[in-house]
Amino acid sequence: MSIVMPPPDAGVLARRADIVRALRSIVPGEGVIDDVDALRPYESDGLTAYRQPPMVAVLPETTEQVSRILAWCHAEGVKVVPRGSGTSLSGGALPLADAVLVGMAKFNRVLDIDYDDRLAVVQPGVTNLAVTQAVEDRGFYYAPDPSSQIACSIGGNVAENSGGVHCLKYGLTTNNVLGVEMVMMDGEIIRLGGRQLDPAGLDLLGVVVGSEGMLGIVTEVTVRILPKPEGARALLIGFPSVEGAGNCVADVIAAGIIPAGMEMMDRPAIHAAEAFVNIGYPLDVEALLIVELDGVAAECDHLIHKVADIARANGSTTLRLSSDEQERMGFWAGRKAAFPAVGRIAPDFYCMDGTIPRRRLPEVLEKIQKFSRQYDLEVANVFHAGDGNLHPLILYDANIPGQLDRAEAFGSDILKLCVEVGGVLTGEHGVGVEKRDLMPVMFSEADLQQQQRLKCAFDPELLLNPGKVFPTLHRCAELGRMHVHHGAVPFPDIPRF
């Protein structure tokens, strides 16, 4: 494990029995887990390369219990790591040896559905797919749809600002959350946003979505639901080169067409997905695009023909249009099963998440192949082509000494490349521990200190999910200091309060 986490506090570990006893007084019954073997399921999230059992896990069922847990931990100086379904791919829910892990799986109820205002109020443990299942009988759905939607929770989606194959047109989690109830580290319960659109004041809701469990624990989420489009059809387009597919993506967007989804896979990913779902993906192509258009029937038909013409102009060799809803869902089944499919061809894989300008796609994929040869590790590429969000899957075997280290170095080079070409370190998986030490590649020290000041405003004692996101975590008192030189403060003309 090359990621270095904060050293455990020996004083806190010595008080473990007292901590367990206090937690059991708040969450009785089976809600507190302290047995070493029973804690094993919590030792990692979806980034399984890094493992660390928590000191203790607690599974509250009510907002009041969460409030009491945090208030007690705050008073006693005990760190807390929030956890949803554990599908995070950046190590955002990686436990600490001296921290209480707060699992939100029991917050699994849909509390209210308001079709007139087109919203649903759900607890954070409700799975992403369950929101759509709760409203689909009335012709509605929840738009963000990560590949892990059958398992990932809404609370985790809020923490990581998750996307999905349809985020190009309908936005990520931040564009589909109207409000949250959240418990602060000192136990205070607050509400941000709500049923209304665009509440007045600072956009604190926008700060919380994507904050990776570092500002508070969300106990309720109000999400936007949308009426299902009148129709949707998908195109399966094969190309003899990755460059042709990348140019097609750029040309579709340049033509003013915003598909509901536009995904891309390269040859290794195509073959793995087809072997997994047997849907009829072409196996003689180097790149495959899945382009979905939705809306009224006339609009879909018009746009489909425009996309097909653009694809042919970029050298497509195969073009298949879904004939019915079952076939359309089949096209997506392979893409959404790409991660588990790749898991069948290698003992382990390291899933990266970086975002680049669309026009740099062919260049970046070519350099990823060079890295593959340099590190002698295979890579399969699946990604949200429409918004430039890459998901290279680096294949390795953790049982072979040195392969994990090479996979990490390979992934680091990919992320540095994303920033170099004008992109960013993450699109939807978050920073967590995986990208933490690469933050200075993208941000200056002043940038990082400003971000940490925001963290300090919510969590002054730095007890919530420490060791994540920031490569060097300063004490809040350090960040708040003002340098006075010879009695003169900086910018003396600015009014001070």
Automatic annotation (TrEMBL):
Domain spans labelled FAD-binding PCMH-type: 50-228
Extract the InterPro entries matched here.
Answer: FAD-bd_oxidored_4_C, FAD-bd_PCMH, FAD-bd_PCMH-like_sf, FAD-bd_PCMH_sub2, FAD-linked_Oxase-like_C, FAD-linked_OxidoTrans_Type4, Oxid_FAD_bind_N, Vanillyl_alc_oxidase_C-sub2
Asked whether the UniProt record includes Lipoprotein among its keywords, one would answer no
Q: Which controlled-vocabulary keywords does the entry list?
A: FAD, Flavoprotein, Oxidoreductase
- Keyword ATP-binding included in the entry's annotation: no
Q: Please indicate which superkingdom the organism of origin belongs to.
A: Bacteria
- Listed PROSITE patterns: FAD_PCMH
Q: Which cofactor does it need?
A: FAD
What the entry lists under Gene3D superfamilies is as follows:
3.30.465.10, 3.30.70.2740, Vanillyl-alcohol Oxidase, Chain A, domain 4 (1.10.45.10)
Q: What Pfam families does the record tag this protein with?
A: FAD-oxidase_C, FAD_binding_4
MF annotations from Gene Ontology: FAD binding; oxidoreductase activity
What protein does this entry describe?
FAD-binding oxidoreductase
Originating species? Tardibacter chloracetimidivorans
Taxonomic lineage = Bacteria, Pseudomonadati, Pseudomonadota, Alphaproteobacteria, Sphingomonadales
